[in-house]
Amino acid sequence: MTSIAAESVSTILVSCKQTRFHIESPNYRELDIEGLNITVTSAAGEKAGKGKGKGKAGAEGTEILSNAKLRLKAGSRYALVEGNGSGKSTLLRAIADKLIPGIPEQTRVSILQQTNISDANTDDLPATTPSAGTGGPTVLEDVVDKATAKSDLEQEINSLSSGVNSTDAYGALRALRKLRHERMQKRLFILDKDARLRSGARGLQARKALVEYEKAVAQSAALNEQPADDILPETLQAETQEAVDLADLQLQVEPSRMADIESRAKKILTGLGFTEAYMTKARQTDILILDEPTNFLDLLGIIWLQRYLQSLEDLPTPPTLILVSHDRDFTSSVCTDLLIVKDKDLTYFHGDLPTYESSQVEKKVYLTKMKEAQDKQKAHMQESIRQNLAQGRKNDDQNKIRQAKSRQKRLDDRMGMQVNEKGGRFKLNRDLAGYHFSARADIAIPQDERGVSITLPDPPDLRFPGALLSLEKLTFRYPPAKGAATKPAPTLQDITLTVSEGDRIGILGLNGAGKSTLIRLLVGDPAPPRSQQTGTVTAHPRLKLSYYSQHAVEQLQARGQNDPSLTALALLTSEVEGALDEGELRGLLGSLGLQGRTASDVPLRKLSGGQLVRCELARLLWRRPGLLVLDEVTTHLDYETVSALREALRGWGGAVVLVVREGVVEGVVDEEEGSEAEEEEEEEGLRRRVVYKLAAGKLTVLERGVDQFEEGMQRRVKKLMGD
Fold first, then answer.
1. Cα–Cα distance measured from residue 359 to residue 349, given in angstroms and rounded to the nearest whole number
2. Which of 431, 455, 485 is the last residue of a domain?
3. Domain count, the chain
4. Residue 112 in contact with residue 120, Cβ under 8 Å?
5. How would residue 62 be classed by pLDDT, with cut points 50, 70 and 90?
6. Which own/partner contact pairs does 151-158 have at CB distance under 8 Å and 24+ positions apart?
7. What secondary structure letter does DSSP report for 425?
8. pLDDT value of residue 269
9. Quick one: where's region Disordered (predicted)?
10. Does some domain include residue 412?
């Protein structure tokens, strides 16, 4: 009962305790799978593990889940929660690709995975030419492709058409044979899972069918490798004509079948701000998986998506939703249940994250009191047993000895957990099946997890006063597209902005407004041609600036691919050039959540997005900057790290410019009016807090901060949805 999915650098091994009774499910929106094991291993690890026993998932590599229970109720909305690098995306992949035995092949699963970072550069481009200068698809095009999933039939049409229209005489034949082989491989995967799941006579029959089909697949593979000289002319003619006929038939059927689906998709994509050019078709689904869907959406898109997901419950058969998001407000407003990955297991909670955290605190207090009471009772019983045994042996009193043994048995069998997992009274025959050394488990008090603590180094002394950075009447426009008769409208127009010591400046705006363009001009990364810019940019001569680019994760991923053995610790060691020793670097990385072997042994190419953000922050902080310019730094970070970063920035003596969602702007830039910290800072003249909105090339102050921006977005979403 094992499934395997191989990739270029790793393999996902999956096994579970499914039987033939789980093969057919009347409700494809539900999952109930016992004994789930998931391991991610390198190709070498998988090869080594094959000799240790057939179907053993977990022989080598990183174990994500061990003997877990995956239980999804139809129509429920689950938030999958745990820290960066815990294997959430691997679990989602296993569900989406139906690698888990027991997920019926008829189940329709749609997945929007974490968007490719390299395609996320939409904020820098003029709205009229969103693809200009990128050399590839934009994030919108990538999201549409992943979220709406072009059908297999359309891909087959494209493959056949390419073969038919090829100048190669054997092109149509090769395309047809490749298509047949791909279909057979999909069928083989289903038969293989079926054979593993069935037992008895049905299992024997399924295994015989699998063996026969494997022979057919091998013959198909041989045909795909057949040299052109061995193909008979009549075979070439017949298969070429078959490819032409099949392509024509599919081209006639596809448009009518997809027309209705495209109509429904346009409504959804319009709400997310997609133009007509980016719209493709969508499909209905039984299980909808969204892995960080808000990463590259602006506030307008987030609010719309939130309301759309909430509206799913009004459908006659709403899909079962699994959501991964570090935006706690978004998660709490959308999801009804939590699916928690912890200690290689899955646990469930009905409610939102704040309620779960409160319940965990209450549970710890309750268990602590229970253990303290039991420890006192056990100590008293142990002393009583000791006295009875001593007196019984001294006086040869068998009653005393029997009484002591009885109390010892009670001590062994009756102490421990007094309640079951559901909070009811513990019953041995119901709550602890099987043989155990003790009749009850010991009371285990949950340990407080080590939190993320970020310490920012003190900024350097500038020696003489003056603004750190200033823009004066800055106007910027991108060059016109090739062959265009007119220039595009300015991305930025007449911008004036000053950043002084201790300032807290937040910049909000929709995607495409030019926020990242403004930041790059502010820090000079890189300086644009003078023909595209008017106005001045001035920096303090002693300014030490650290700039977090929204492409930082992409750049680290590229370095990791170029040097497969490069680790976070090795990268920093090469950059500090002796300014910090290994212990200091480990301390810095550890404070950001990259402890121990994760920093020194795990290559960059295997780190999660959130872990790469932490690595980049370490690269910025060791330089002791006086100004931090952070462009979408929270995109991949979990809530705990975002909270730690917010707290660190709040008390730091340097200046901060944030282009980020409101989760960090609030508390760093947008303090509550009249707060004690804000009043003290104003009295001492230490800090200026300003929130700006960038729209239509203009920078304007939001007097009421983030609330004012969010209210405007709420109104726009209501209008989009026709409320």
1. 10
2. 431
3. 3
4. no
5. confident
6. 151/258, 151/281, 151/283, 153/250, 153/254, 154/254, 156/250, 157/247, 157/250, 157/251, 157/254
7. B
8. 47
9. 389-413
10. yes
Residues 524 and 611 reside in one and the same domain: no
| CA distance to 3, 4, 80, 90, 425, per residue, from 99 (Å) | 5, 7, 18, 11, 38
Question: Are 507 and 647 in the same domain?
Answer: yes
Q: In this structure, are strands 504-508 and 11-15 parallel, antiparallel, or unpaired? A: unpaired
Q: Do 565 and 592 belong together in one domain?
A: yes
According to the model, what pLDDT value does residue 198 have?
66
Name 627's Cβ contacts closer than 8 Å, sequence gap at least 6.
Answer: 459, 468, 469, 499, 543, 544, 545, 546, 654, 655, 656, 657
Residue from 174, 145, 147 nearest 162 by CA: 174
H or E segment at 290? strand 287-291
Task: Judge whether 187 lies within some domain.
Answer: no
Same domain, 640 and 713: yes
Whole-prediction pTM: 0.67
Query: What CATH number does the domain containing 516 carry?
Result: 3.40.50.300
CA–CA separation, 668 and 646 (whole Å)? 6
Q: Name the more confident of 688 and 571.
A: 571
With respect to residue 283, please indicate whether it lies within any of the assigned structural domains. Answer: no
713 and 694, same structural domain?
yes
Q: Judge if 715 and 648 occupy the same domain.
A: yes
Is residue 492 included in any domain, yes or no?
yes
- Among residues 618, 640, 658, the one where a domain terminates is 618
Determine the Cα–Cα distance for residues 615 and 457; give it in Å rounded to an integer. Answer: 16
The yes-or-no verdict on residue 576 having pLDDT over 70 is yes
The residue range of the domain holding 414 is 354-431
Question: How far apart are alpha carbons 380 and 391 in whole angstroms?
Answer: 17
Residues 490 and 375 in one domain: no
The residue that leads in pLDDT, 189 or 521, is 521
Average pLDDT over residues 634-647: 82
More confident residue, 280 or 351: 351
Residues 6 or more apart from 281 whose CB is under 8 A from it? 148, 150, 151, 258, 261, 262, 265
Based on the domain organization, do 514 and 571 belong to the same domain?
no
Mean pLDDT within 541-554? 91
Averaged over 40-48, what is the pLDDT? 55
Per-residue model confidence as pLDDT tens digits over 659-680: 876 656 766 777 655 455 555 5
